[in-house]
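Hello Y.,

Per our agreement to keep a running log of every chain we model this quarter, I'm adding this entry. I've kept the format consistent with earlier entries: sequence first, then predicted structure.
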Amino acid sequence: MTSTYVATAGEREKRGGKKPDLVESDRMRAENSLGRKLVVPAIVVMLIVTAFPMLRALYLSLFTYSLTAPEDREFVGLSNYLTALTDPLFWRDTGVTVLYMLVTVAVELVIGFAFAMVMHRVIFARGVIRTSILIPYGIITVVSGFAWQFAFSYQNGFVNGWLPFLDSDFNWFGESTPAIIAIMISEIWKTTPFMSLLLLAGLAQVSEDMLEAAQVDGATWWQRLWKVILPNMRAAIMVAVLFRALDAYRIFDNIAVMTAGAVNTESISFLTYRQTIEQFQLGIGSALSVLLFLSVLLIAWLIVKLFKVDLAAARQEG
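Predicted structure for the entry above:
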């Protein structure tokens, strides 16, 4: 019944008709009411913990304020934002940050889906395999960053020895491109298990009856993947991509440990840190943090719009 409804709605939408309205059932109303009751306490706690720092950052971004001369604080309005948006360094770091996000999330999505398929299908030693895959995610990011910095070191690392096309004394952190690649590899290794865990939850929602019916109809494995598995995992994929994209856009730890922002590997988060903590410029640093927050909201909105997931249909309601 559900698949017929979705197909019919899609056909009507393609023909220019309106999508039929979903009738809210007693079950849907009860679930919505329960959802609101569960979410409200978390929202209240988040507002208490985050509202003051956010409002304080917004307030400080309107001033020229340095901890080295706090008495010279002066209201400048949006001048700090104008300074940031007209600075080539800001846009260079934004481009590097977007590059980190796009590459790492894309690679993690592919590898994470492969891991999720293995964890979903394996029967023997399932618990051991799932635990082994999740080990990297349990390691503190700073610790994994130091480990990968050692691995890519040209003095005593092992990566150069594993790659025969590189010189043994090749310095990964001497130029921008190899340094960015090294940081991406460390990020992918660390967070792919998180992606696979979210995708595994989505795979569990794919109906085995639909897969068996497609197989009986003569569909190949690739056809079942593209026509049955991925469409039914659309909501889970959106959640996985959303969470990882927002996290990857705020990348900081690996950069701080492996390069400290040298050779043009700096992200927006690290630029904000340098301005606020190292140079004591609270005004411009607060403006950068507000711009980072707005960028995260924009990315979240774009991802949700890109996937166009109907959550009611994904829950098989209506």
